[in-house]
Amino acid sequence: MEPATSTEFAVCRRAVVAAAAGSMLLAVHAPASAKSVFAEVWKDPNCGCCKDWVAHLEAGGFKVKANDTGNDRIRERLGVDRKYGSCHTALVGGYAIEGHVPVKEIRRILKERPAALGLAVPGMPIGSPGMDGGPYGNRKDPYNVMLLTKDGGATVYQRYEGSKS
């Protein structure tokens, strides 16, 4: 075998660089489901909006284990104050997720990794994920996704304005 010429070496090197760049683009633009994240949810077995929120997680690419045991004990164990409470609690990537938090915000906290307890959407606002089904029509009330701090406080992480319908 003869040694490669400088032109052949340059062509080969460009091909390797192009292949590597293409691989990186594929990794960056892979669908969310390709990076399935595990979520464990505690909910009431008879709650329709809890089931709808679990379906929202699954549609967002999360692998979900649902526990039909209620969520009071896990909320307390995770340190989520009752004033931020809702009808279901999840544990995702080490963060407590309380209530009807959109997948978009869960993915954001997992990417940003703030030193926090987790996220909460207190209560059950109409139009939030799981509270947006047929009985509610097109109604979307404004609500906040709260970033729960480890000292028991909270700040607004994302505001959803709602709509006037």
TrEMBL record:
InterPro entries: DUF411, Thioredoxin-like_sf. Keywords: Signal. The keyword Signal applies. It holds the Pfam family DUF411. The keyword Metal-binding does not apply. It comes from the Bacteria. Residues 1-34 form the signal peptide. This is DUF411 domain-containing protein.
